[in-house]
Amino acid sequence: MADDEVDFEDELEGDTAMEDSAPAKGGKAVQRDGSGRRMKGRGTASSAMEGDAFESIENKGGSTKGPLRSVEGWIIFVTNLHEETQEDDVHDKFCEFGEIKNLHLNLDRRTGFVKGYALVEYESQKEAQGAIDNMEGETLMGSTINVDWAFSRGPIRGKR
Fold first, then answer.
1. What is the distance between the alpha carbons of residues 22 and 40, in angstroms, rounded to a whole number?
2. 76, 112, 118, 121: least surrounded by Cβ within 10 Å?
3. Where are the beta strands (DSSP E) in the chain?
4. How would you label 62-93 residue by residue, b for 16+ Cβ within 10 Å and e otherwise?
5. CB atoms < 10 A from the CB of 22, how many?
6. Helix, strand, coil proportions of the chain in percent (round to 5)?
7. What's CA 118's distance to the chain center, in Å?
8. What strand order describes the sheet that includes 19-23?
9. Which residues are CB-neighbours of 76 under 8 A, at least 6 positions away?
10. Phi, psi of 114, deg, nearest 5
11. 3-state DSSP call for residue 97?
């Protein structure tokens, strides 16, 4: 070997990627790098990956599908609104199913017209479900609207 060549094997011997040390509080081994610094987080060997499957939050009862309540109430998502729809038009159509706590109708900044959807919030799930059941497929200002839950529980991913 020439003088200017470096033997990489000799250089790497002292620098191990991760070494286990004595168990810390709670009985888990602490991961440490070659310089003795504590290794934490996703990239370490003791992270959430076990057997090529992610840990998940357990479902605490109830079904895995269905509507979710927001912090303030039950929100439904109204889509396919005509671009010239006003808040009063949406309010008049949906107020017959219960008191509307909040109504949000987004406008396009460039054109000033409605983006095509609205969020309507009810106090109870029964009122919101009634609006979904009765207004799905109805016509508002010449457009057939679609109504569904804004937030819902999706299927829980199973292990591979």
1. 15
2. 112
3. 19-23, 29-32, 38-39, 66-67, 74-79, 100-107, 114-122, 139-140, 143-144, 146-149, 152-153
4. eeeeebeeeeebbbbbbeebbeebeeebbeeb
5. 6
6. 20, 30, 50
7. 20
8. 19-23, 29-32, 38-39
9. 119, 120, 121, 122, 128, 131, 132, 147, 148, 149, 150
10. -65, 140
11. helix
Name residue 64's amino acid. T
Query: Encoding tokens for residue 68?
Result: 């979710």
| CA dihedral for 53, 58, 62, 68, sign (positive or negative) | negative
Q: What is the pLDDT of residues 23-43, one digit of tens each?
A: 555 566 677 777 888 877 776
* Whole-prediction pTM: 0.56
How far is it, in rounded angstroms, from Cα 100 to Cα 135?
Answer: 15
More confident site: 38 or 8: 38
Q: Are 135 and 143 in contact (CB under 8 A)?
A: no
Distance separating alpha carbons of residues 113 and 120, to the nearest angstrom: 18
Lowest mean pLDDT among 23-32, 45-54, 61-70, 127-136: 45-54
